[in-house]
Amino acid sequence: MIDTQDITGLVLAGGRGSRMGGVDKGLQNFRGLPLALHTLMRLQMQVGHVMVNANRNLAAYEAFGAPVWPDVIADYAGPLAGFLTGLERCETPWMLTVPCDTPLFPLDLAARLAAAADQAGADIAMAAAPEDDGAGGTAVRTQPVFCLLRVDLLESLVAFTQAGGRKIDAWTAQHQHVVVPFDQPGDDPLAFFNANTLAELHSLEGSGTP
Ligand SMILES: Nc1nc2c(ncn2[C@@H]2O[C@H](COP(=O)(O)OP(=O)(O)OP(=O)(O)O)[C@@H](O)[C@H]2O)c(=O)[nH]1
Fold first, then answer.
1. How many angstroms does the Cα of residue 1 sit away from the middle of ligand 1?
2. DSSP run (H or E) holding 155
3. Cα–Cα distance between 46 and 6 in angstroms, integer?
4. Of 146, 147, 139, whose CA–CA distance to 183 is shortest?
5. I need a surface site. Which of 73, 82, 176, 204 has the fewest CB within 10 A?
6. Tell me: domain 4-205, CATH 3.90.550.10, correct?
7. Which residue out of 76, 143, 198, 201 has the highest number of ligand 1 atoms within 8 Å of its CB and is therefore the one to mutate?
8. Could you report the predicted ipTM of this complex, rounded to two decimals?
9. What is the mean pLDDT of the chain?
10. Which residues on adjacent β-strands are paired with residue 29?
11. For the chain, what are the domain ranges?
12. Distance CA 77, CA 161 (A)
């Protein structure tokens, strides 16, 4: 049984934010708080420990009160660089990654991923959520940046990234993993809506979801 207190939550705030005009996304205002702090607080309620992965404005992130780690691979290598950085620093058996730009993510994310990993005996559990399929309908798609993973996968991720691997799905496919759909009655359809632009961030800010 995975105890959620044995999970360290990692807020991924290390991106370039190019679709937001190159600003540091995690420091943009969301409902009166920096977006990454809002995310950190939502994650902190669900797990035993938290930390932040950021590559700019480190002092501003440190003011949140959690450890802050910049990427151990140079040149904005993508979210997997954040995974690698977190795994190197994590002191619990499990780590849960959450991007800083999806502020309404489920309040039961950690519990549901942990239960599914337990049940499947998996080393990795990722969320999936309904998304616009581009043809007027919706399709449930994996959201690989919402990833619960065993910390002893570090060695595997070091090898994968040293060989030039950058795609989360290509790495998780090498391990026993389970995908957990968040499309049940009562699940918020906006929960996995991420803000890539400032306009998207403002529209999320006004949504009724707490
Ligand atoms: N550590 C780290 N995280 C990254 C990197 N690139 C993206 N991320 C994170 O991965 C998540 C998804 O990022 P994207 O939306 O694809 O990238 P972004 O940099 O935030 O925004 P764009 O530049 O507009 O694509 C976010 O939480 C980012 O902070 C990176 O190079 N290093």
1. 32
2. helix 154-162
3. 11
4. 139
5. 176
6. yes
7. 76
8. 0.96
9. 96
10. 34
11. 4-205
12. 9
